[in-house]
Amino acid sequence: MTKYEKGALAAVAAMVVAAGFIFLYAPTDALQGPVQRIFYIHVSSAIAAYGCFALVLIGGIAYLWKENVAADRLARAAALVGLVFTTITLVMGMIWAKPTWGTYWTWDARLTSTLVLWIIYAGYLMVRRLADPGRQAARFAAVVGIFGFIDVPVVHFSVTWWRTQHPGPVVINDALPPQMLVAFFVTMACTLFLAAVMIAIRYRIELLMDQAAEKVVPAAIAAPNEAGGVR
Amino acid sequence: MSVIVAASLTQRFGSEVGLDGVDLDVDAGEHLAVLGDNGAGKTTLLRILATAARPTSGRIEIFGLNATIERRRLRGVIGFVAHAPGLYPALSAAENLEFYCTLQGVDRGRVAEVLELVGLAELAHRPADKLSRGAQQRLAIGRAVLHDPKLLVLDEPDASLDSGGADLLARVMRGRTAVIATHDHALANRLCQRSLMLRRGRVVGVPTRLRVVH
Amino acid sequence: MRSEWRTRELVPALAQFVVLALVIANFGFQIDSRNAPAIAPGVLWMALVFAGLVAFGRAFAAEREQSSLEAMLMTPASPAAIFAGKALAAALLLVLCEAVLLPALALFFSVPLSLEVVSAVLLATVGMAVLGCLFAAMVARVRARELLLPLLTLPLWIPFIVFGGQAVQVAMGGGGGAGNASGLLIDLDILFVVLTSLVARFVLDD
């Protein structure tokens, strides 16, 4: 078994452990009922998503500064994984919101900035795909990553600020009893581990794709020469 | 003294290859013609020589400086006539040149000189989009020599030049090192001492000496 | 080395038509003299955002624009300076849109047009122009640019719309607390102007 397969297995095992903690160890929330259990994955995903985004930022800056292709690859991998986790966060959030608040969505600071995060990730990946592959794609994507990273807290702040001007519905209550806290930290650790494994696997895929792209070309050029000879 | 020394220039666009291991060198005062069909890689090569683009791999030195790093410095001594003129349509010919004088840090008096040189003195105040394609090309050439560059890189300048174009090119290239991409072998013969042929991104054969016929 | 905006003669005509069309189209909202101050800011920013996106998209997309940009890069001028010139032109474009939009708004919706309203809008314009310019320049070289430009630019414009919207609303006599919206706009402007000038050369040059 390669190290990637081992890593994947370990990550899955970790998530099973986390699930155990969520469903068996943590008590049911008095107010919200069983739905509240979504919260563990929801917040863990959010943290994983932001963590990935930080990697995208660092990779992007490193690339712009040093033209380090490995840094760009890391950013690419982290962006894809981050998008996945952001999607999970949003979906879980919506599933949780309906029974709890009565609505799927509300424009508070956290949801808005998470949505913005999703849009920026999507933009990042689109720019990568649509720009000239190679240096241009990497450069443009790095710029998007940098601006996006700064934009998310700015948006968060602006919505919070706006809410102080226009007081609206109440936000999430964060107080947690100790057992829930334990379950949460376990889940978070497992989710971060899962994210790390996913990034590592994706990085490897990107590396293989880069290498393949470099090999394809010389072969195509060499062939006609052998057939036609020098003119 | 070598003005351009390039080794193993390779340019890749994703999985497509524009240039594959091109070597070339150009001496001071020399005029080199780059020949080849469309898609052979002439524009790609010329853009690299003019520092408009960086090669994916390979080395290139211009005036002894590493051309992938010292680009801004080099741009002050290189004149580039690209495939597309890139002029400001709403501005007149003279205004276009004046604008570039500011960008190049060159005195505005040059504008009149250059207009005279390219034969646009009478059309100086006409908006660029009202100029014929040939006149626009002359303007683009004029713009490229505004700052009296030591190296001139011309990408198919003859494509839309009107009559007398060859003379203009000869005038403009005189006294400078020049690399010119063209389809026109006769023109290459007339203007250049050596030629290089590209096919599918590779140099074909050996750079040949041309007979210079005046 | 920063002169460039005379060449923007062509595009304002386009922008004016766009803005007018939008203002007229906004009769879809149910507006009377009571809720006008509350809704007008929203209409203002929406119209401005759309006009901005269209204007930026057009201004940079032209093939001609791309080749003239490259010609400018082929000089010793720094890419940051070239970008500054373009951003100034972009800002001017937006200001022109506003010059049409604001009076039209005041006219149609009977909302007061004070100095505060104008200054709030102008402050936001700086940041929006700089960001729009950067991403328009980026997107011009890329496929599917009509889709990509709003996708990239709007998330970054949101804080400007929030603060600007609030400032305008207060100035027009609508609800909401005072807050220091203008100060925040200035902070945002400084932040993004610095950032974009640092990053401009990666977007413009190879």
Short structural summary:
The complex is a heterotrimer of chains A (231), B (214) and C (206). In chain A, 82% of the residues lie in helices and 0% in strands. Chain A has six helices and no strands.
Q: How do the strands and helices of this protein lay out in sequence?
A:
The complex is a heterotrimer of chains A (231), B (214) and C (206).
Chain A: H1 3-25, H2 38-66, H3 69-101, H4 109-130, H5 135-165, H6 178-228
Helix pairs in contact in A: 1-6, 2-3, 2-5, 2-6, 3-4, 3-6, 4-5
Chain B: E1 2-13, E2 16-27, E3 31-35, H1 42-49, E4 57-62, E5 65-66, H2 71-75, E6 78-81, H3 93-104, H4 109-118, H5 133-145, E7 151-155, H6 165-173, E8 177-182, H7 185-191, E9 194-199, E10 202-209
Parallel strand pairs in B: 3-8, 3-9, 6-7, 7-8
Antiparallel strand pairs in B: 1-2, 1-4, 4-5, 9-10
Helix pairs in contact in B: 3-4, 3-5, 4-5
Chain C: H1 10-25, H2 36-61, H3 63-73, H4 79-109, H5 115-140, H6 145-171, H7 181-204
Helix pairs in contact in C: 1-2, 1-4, 2-4, 2-5, 2-6, 4-5, 4-7, 5-6, 5-7, 6-7
Helix-and-strand structural type of chain B: alpha/beta
Q: Helical segment tally of chain A?
A: 6
Radius of gyration of chain B: 17 Å
> How many domains of chain A?
1
What structural category do the secondary elements of chain A indicate? mainly alpha
What order do the helices and strands of chain B follow? Answer: EEEHEEHEHHHEHEHEE
Strand content of chain A: under 5%
Say how many strands of chain B there are.
Answer: 10
Strand content of chain B: 25-35%
- Average per-residue pLDDT of chain A, rounded, comes to 81
Largest sheet of chain B: 6 strands, mixed
Which key terms come to mind for this protein?
heterotrimer, B: 214 residues, alpha/beta, 6-stranded mixed beta sheet, 4-stranded antiparallel beta sheet, 31% strand, C: 206 residues, mainly alpha, 7 helices
